[in-house]
Write a structure and sequence with these properties.
194 residues; alpha+beta; Coagulation Factor XIII, Chain A, domain 1; six-stranded antiparallel β-sheet; six-stranded mixed β-sheet; 2 helices; 19% helix
């Protein structure tokens, strides 16, 4: 009798654990380029939005009025059974070609809403103002991004199979170089007039 009770209890426990699950089923990065509207880029999603992975974000001439702003991101999660999702974040870094990558910075994605009645949830931040061009000089750069969600089952990642989502852009000319060039041209003109 005791053995039968033990088998039943173990079966119930393992049955409950096998139905517990959580994870990420969609993720997006949100960018604003120059004076454009915010654009959602697909990470772990297949929609009509442009894909973030492999995107060319353009060339930015820092002597002009240009901007590349990370506005945030969106993560959609699921939870079944006894699992729960507690938080979500979008992590990013900008790496110059040939440089050793630095650490990631993160944007918290607060809970937004429940989606339907099955435990799906949306987490997002759409008003961040991360200036991705700040402090950059001439060169080619990669914006590297991944999303995560913390749950009772551990941390889930939307990271392109561990490779992260990567978009490229170019910065020309460095403001100090442009200023030096203008100063040199001015001196040449002055010398010609004298």
């Amino acid at each position: 009798m005791k053995l039968t009770n033990l088998v039943v209890v173990l079966a119930l426990i393992s049955s409950g654990a096998s139905h517990a699950a959580s994870g990420i089923f969609e993720s997006y990065g949100i960018l604003k380029i120059n004076a454009s509207t915010d654009t959602y880029y697909d990470m772990q999603a297949t929609t009509g939005n442009p894909d973030l992975n492999g995107a060319s974000l353009g060339t930015f001439d820092l002597t002009q009025i240009v901007s590349l702003t990370l506005r945030g991101g969106e993560v959609k999660t699921f939870k079944n059974g006894i699992s729960d999702v507690f938080s979500a974040a979008l992590s990013y870094r900008v790496v110059k070609d040939g440089d050793t990558p630095g650490s990631f910075a993160s944007i918290n994605l607060p809970f937004d809403s429940n989606i339907g009645g099955g435990g799906d949830q949306k987490w997002d931040e759409t008003a961040a103002t991360v200036d991705l061009l700040s402090g950059l000089g001439n060169g080619n750069y990669t914006l590297e991004v991944f999303a995560s969600a913390n749950s009772s089952d551990g941390t889930h990642f939307s990271n392109n199979g561990g490779n992260n989502y990567k978009a490229t852009f170019t910065v020309v000319p460095e403001p100090s170089s442009a200023l030096l060039g203008l100063l040199g041209a001015g001196l040449l003109l002055r010398r010609r007039r004298a």
